Amino acid sequence: MRHWVELFQNRWQFVRGITMEDGVGCNRLSGTPPRTRAFGVQSELRKSVEGNYKEAVKKLNSLQSNPSALAKARNNETIEGNAKKMEGFIQRAGMKVEQLDDLSIIHVSGTKGKGSVCALCESMLRASGFKTGFFSSPHLVEVRERFRINGKPLPQEAFTEYFTTIFDRLEETKTSHGAEMPAYFWFLTVLAFHVFLEEKVDVAVVEVGIGGFFDCTNVIRKPVAVGIALLDFDHVKRLGDTIEKIAWHKAGISKPCRPVFTVPQPMGAMKVVMETVIECGASSIECAPNFESYDFSGVPLRLGLTGKHQHTNASLALQLCKTWIENYRKETRNKHKNASDFQLVNDSKWAVSSAADVGMATAKPFVVPRYFMKGLEECYWPGRNQRIKHENVTCYIDGSHTPQSIQACRNWFMEAAKEEHCMLDRPIKRILIFNTRSQRNEYNLLRPLIGCRFDGAAFCPNITGDAASGKSADLTDLSVSTDEQLVRCQRYRAAFEKLTDEETQAGLSLTAQNESVDSHNCLWEDRKTTAKESSVADVKETYAGHFQRTVTEVLPTMSDALRWASAWADQEKDAVEPTGDEPTRTPRQKPHIQVLITGTMHLAGVAIEAIDPELIYRPGS
């Protein structure tokens, strides 16, 4: 069998379907005809653009800080100090902080779903006819993904030009500023503001990096609207080990006289969010209503982002976009054809109880305009609830990295995998590929996945291919070595095996109890079964297949993990059926492989890089 990933073994030679060697490439998933290079000049130009881009990314990577330096810097940070420091970098880059006030910004924080909320906002406003800018993190394949204009990542040439301008300005002024250059994410944030100003976007959607109060994006002083997505435990060493402490950080992006919207939160978090928003002087704080309370004019709506949890994100995005449109209409006196009034839904059932419990108002649902519906349906946000299918392998990719988001990922995967299985006429094998960051509790993240009954589980570093293939500068992480990542993977493997063993023992125990009770209460016409006849040994034999232990592996790269997963299709042996004196073999259908890849956005990124980097641009199958 020609394994799925073998189609991409030479992917390092490809750039958008073109090989540098012979000028012929192919679309690696769809099998569409290759694009050819008409002129040698175009090839040389392309090489030049790529070379300049790679050099820019290498310079950018020089701004990555080691963990000890980051920890030291964070211990000394204050809200005022960070803001002043960021303002200094902005000025050194040739901009004024007042220019940021002229950007029409939607600013979003949160733990789970803030990127999806931003993507939905960008998609709806773009569908409404506005020029959009979107700054997000992290990137999946190339760093330029973080900067999207009208939904598309900056082209390599444009990124290099903007990068060089800002990097050189900061380099030229560092001598008079203590030889200080901004850290990696701080630099990218400065660059984002420069890009949005130069591109003259109508709206800039900005996703917070970490936290809120201390985040460098909090230099934004006059956002049109602020959103706070679902809160969960993440970055606890920096943000705190309680949901209340985390809520304080996340709500810290609220600004005086600016509206804030959030989603239903745990009670303690909701209370802190409301108190913090009020302390920041926001004009209002409202909770987004249930998604089902909006009026879609009878049109069946299918969100571009799959998973029921995306309904919560969509409701928050709808409120943010409505507020932005209303503000635009007020400032421009309705000069845009789609900046019209919104008709509210007159229904008392939209109130959210968790908001009411702390005295927070619930935002009113409204009749959703057709251009908003178009944006919701066409939103594409790779690496989040993404399904990629090729022949007998389907990859389910989601960069979930908190306990709640892993649970949501699990629910999405089980529903989507079951739906796919019902459409197949063959057996399936389920494989998990997992990795996470060091500060996260692997037991809390892995526990929701145990019930998925995986046949195999692979743990690998956030590395795409082997050393011979080369290493993408865009995916370089200087904060951790490959050896350290492999040690962590061994730890994750041990945790997974421990959890599966515990669940198996619990399942066998429960099964034995149920079997004993059923046997005691059952009467058959031709046979009476007593409780003694149903021993634990019988139960173990009966359910041995159901509780079969998952095969686990630690592998060096994502490409190795994908090859290992696809190889499960060849492990089914032909069935032996005796006929007469000689047994015959009946060919069995090869199983369909369902692969769940989750644990961190970085792992989702290397998976997409290994399968097809162009998936950052277009939907998969």
UniProtKB/TrEMBL annotation:
UniProt GO MF annotations: ATP binding; metal ion binding; tetrahydrofolylpolyglutamate synthase activity
Keywords: ATP-binding, Ligase, Magnesium, Metal-binding, Nucleotide-binding, One-carbon metabolism
Top-level taxonomy: Eukaryota, Metazoa, Echinodermata, Eleutherozoa, Asterozoa
An example Gene Ontology biological process: one-carbon metabolic process
Family of the protein in this entry: Belongs to the folylpolyglutamate synthase family.
EC code: 6.3.2.17
Pathway per the UniProt entry: Cofactor biosynthesis; tetrahydrofolylpolyglutamate biosynthesis
PROSITE patterns: FOLYLPOLYGLU_SYNT_1, FOLYLPOLYGLU_SYNT_2
GO cellular component terms, A-Z: cytosol; mitochondrion
Catalytic activities: (6S)-5,6,7,8-tetrahydrofolyl-(gamma-L-Glu)(n) + L-glutamate + ATP = (6S)-5,6,7,8-tetrahydrofolyl-(gamma-L-Glu)(n+1) + ADP + phosphate + H(+)
Name of the molecule in the record: tetrahydrofolate synthase
Source organism: Acanthaster planci (Crown-of-thorns starfish)
